[in-house]
Amino acid sequence: MRQICFRILARGLGLLFIVFQSNPALALGWETARSAPSARTEIAAAALKGKIYILGGFKLTGVSAGVERYDPVTDRWEDRADLPEAVHHAGAAVVDEVLYVVGGFGGLFSWKPSNRVWAYDEQGDRWIEKKAMPTARGALGLAVWQGKLYAIGGLAETSSGKMNVDANEAYDPSSDTWESKAPLPFARDHLAAAELNGKIHAIGGRLDSAFSKNLDRHDIYDPKSDQWLTATPLPKPRSGIAAAVLKGKIYVFGGESPAGTFKDNDAYHPETNQWEASLPMSTARHGLGAVTVKNKIYVISGGRKPGGSRSKINEVFSLE
Predict the structure, then answer these.
(1) CATH no. for residue 83?
(2) Quick one: which of 89, 156, 235, 274 could link to 138 by a disulfide (CB 3.0–4.6 Å)?
């Protein structure tokens, strides 16, 4: 009888080991949620009232104006009103329960930097144009602090062609106005931006939109003093990344380089000014979105290969 029980227990443990081996996400704090309706990369993403919006980006047919909304509670997607123009490499953020889309590159097959700003009227399911950003640019970082949007860095059009800008411009929705702030210390594009404990972090990125020129740069902006300081760099140079805040840390996901895409998930501790390797993504990607809802980070879309690849992937990171 003891031998039979032992064999059953051994089989059970073996099956459990096989499950964890075949699906490491179960063991590593990742799970797979319902895929997005359309495959995209270089999207903008933000959460409004507990629901996640995926906006613009590249689809198989070119640049998209499409907007898809995901409800984590029901694990379902639905289409919402398209953006008034197709755009990729834009920024998205929410202020006072209003979703904003800022900048990017506009046009169906275009890389023309945009300065347009759109606010979403949720009740009417429509988009309203707001005051244009002073510096037209795409592949910028976007963060929120005390009711204002901060648009940082990016790639702009100049008389010498496209080049990186150090612009740091703040938008106040209450007055529909923009104000120039202290410039980003090191101009770059394809960076990530996140606010934590009253400071805005500008992380990673690249030069001249070339992922062969990835950076590990990490700068912190204090909106109160309008000053920047340089912080501990990323563990490795990365761009085409996404960042989100969870339980007092900033998590930076994915990216691309000539060697391929990254599974990396690095966590930044503001108290120690240090990074640590966290649980890697199940699927390496770039041009993805990362959005926190109820103590989970939803890492959505993005390309599995460097360049123009796309996906519908929706993977969820949790520390619980």
Answers:
(1) 2.120.10.80
(2) 89
